[in-house]
Predict the 3D structure of the following.
Amino acid sequence: MNIIFAGTPEFARVALERMLAAGFRAPLVLTQPDRPAGRGMKLQASPVKQLALEQNIPVVQPRGLRLDGKYPDDAAAAREAIEAAQADAMVVAAYGLILPQWVLDTPRLGCFNIHASLLPRWRGAAPIHRAIEAGDVQTGVTIMQMDAGLDTGDMLLSESAPIRDEDTTGSLHDRLATLGGRLIVEALELAACGGLRARPQPDEGVTYAHKIEKAEAAIDWTLPAEVLARRIRAFNPFPGAATSWTGDAIKVWAAHAMEGAVGGSPGEVLAAGAEGIRVATGAGALALTELQRAGGKRLAAADFLRGFALAPGQVLDAVVPTKEGG
């Protein structure tokens, strides 16, 4: 089978790698334009583009796919490449562009999406983050037949995966990427022999995983400790939960809620030692166990406290100051 692949980040790269290893041919890869990244802000190719170039697969990077949109020339060039590929199907994984109807209709078998949730729960841009933030105990991957809606297409294959108490978005992402790579290979093998069966998504249980905004990084100490612990795991590695003390930003990478009644106002440091920095919240206390100062390294609480003295009675700020002072 000839499979066009559309994807951008590491989650998608894993799937493309599995497809190629399974013997599927990829005559074309679509990915986002190169973006500036790193300290030097040099243009960097996406993980998918890097793999495609290693495998000598042609790559196109349109800024848009709507023929009547902002980048009609990009869309027209992409259309020419997609039609020339004569693909049996297109596989889409975290691509970053909405596919217009002409794209959905071009491959013989349509477009298959690798979505990191058990649809219809967590349709949208950030299903892994939102599942952890909400306290879900399981998630999974769904292979979906794409339609014009937002993750509303028929389900082709799905498999669940547990969300562990210690999972961050980073660790869960890696497991779901592996699962997604395996499931898309299974789906394509079934499609090749006519054995793939679609089923509509149920009407009940629809939720939306809205895009993660950097503003969500600020720790609101008036929230319960359990909620904050989940958000810290959900925002690791991006955007990273953060607080501040006397104007210095502090990233919090690991924390856990502590049981029992506590005194102090939200954000007040109750204790600081090798076992963690215990902070009062709106309900309960949160023990911060891995932290990072701006420009520094991630450190265990004991090492962090050697260079950043926090003491009981001090109150951490709920709003992290920006470079502009806001």
User: Anything to note?
Assistant: The helical segments are 10-21, 47-54, 72-85, 101-105, 127-134, 169-192, 225-234, 301-307. The two ends are 54 Å apart (CA to CA). The chain has two domains: 3-209, 214-307.
